[in-house]
Amino acid sequence: MTTAPEPEGLPYWEFTLGWRLRKSLEHAGLQAQQIADELEVSNSAVGRWTRDEVTPHPLFLQRWAEITKVDYGWLRSGVTPGLPKPRGGAGKRNTVNKMLDNQDDFLDGLLTACTPVAAGF
Asked: Phi/psi at 34 (nearest 5 deg)?
């Protein structure tokens, strides 16, 4: 099996749906089997979703977001509510690279900002 080449300076895998699913589980402190039980799907289905082998139905994504307490829009598309979208070209790569400099702190802040409590819901 071949893999797609990484764009220069930007690891392509970090912002895939599978990556966001894994990070939301980590944020919620859940294991794959726990979310599988909540969604009433097999553990192997969750594994395929988190490895980007199969895309889950939007209804499963909505429920996943509710269970892990992350924003559905972010989980589905990777766009963070309230943050400006980076503009194309090198500027976009530079913005992403700056965010990745301290990825864990960025992710914690991002997921906190996306929770219903932080958003004032």
From this structure: -65, -45
pTM (2 decimals)? 0.60
Within-domain flag for 66: yes
Residues 105, 59, 119, 98, CA torsion sign: positive
CATH number at residue 77: 1.10.260.40
Give domain status of residue 120, yes or no.
no
- Count how many domains the chain has: 1
71: helix, strand or coil: coil
Helices (H), the chain: 17-28, 32-39, 43-50, 58-68, 72-77, 90-101, 103-114
Nearest to 41 by CA among 29, 57, 52: 57
Domain residues for 102?
14-114
CA dist., res. 96 & res. 98, Å (int): 5
Mind listing the pLDDT tens digit for each residue in 33-88? 999 999 999 999 999 999 999 999 999 999 999 999 999 988 998 887 666 555 55
Kindly state whether residue 57 falls inside one of the protein's structural domains.
yes
